[in-house]
Amino acid sequence: xxxxxxxxxxxxxxxxxxxxxxxxxxxxxQREYRLLSKAPQGGGTGLDKSCPLAAAGRGPWNILRSxxxxxxxxxxxxxxxxxxxxxxxxxxxxxxxxxxTPLPAAYLDKLYKSQLFRQAYEPDxxxxxxxxxxxxxxxxxxxxxxxxxxxxxxxxx
Length: 157
Hints:
two-stranded parallel sheet, mainly alpha, 2 domains, about 160 residues
C-alpha cells in the first residue's frame, strides 16, 4: 500500500510524500487493530477467530510499527527476504508498543489526499466486489501469478 499511495501523494503535490507514505501502513494497522481486534469494551468488534496479516512490508518501519504487546490478538507479518535483510543489517531498538507510535502531525490529512488510502482506511471505503481491482491488491495478485508461472517454468526445465 505504501508505494501506490506514495505515487498518488506525489501526483497530488505533497512535498514530503516519500516520508508520509511510510506512515500509510501504520495508520492502517492502527485502525484495523482498533476496529477488528480490540475487545468491544475497548471500542472494537472483538474478532478472535482470525487475526490481521500485515503483508509485503516495504521497509524496516513496517516491522518496527507492527510490534505490540497487547494480548487480544497475534500479529503475523510477511516481509520480502530483501526487506528482512535490510532490517537485520543494523542494530535496531525495538519498542514493544511500536504499533501505537503516533502519526506525525498533519500526516493523516496528507494521507487522505490519496484515494487508495481512503479506500483502505475507511471502513466503507470500498465494496467487496471492488477489492480485486483495487490497485495494491491487483499488483500483489499479479506478482503472485508471475512468481507461480516462473516456478512452473523452473519445474518444466
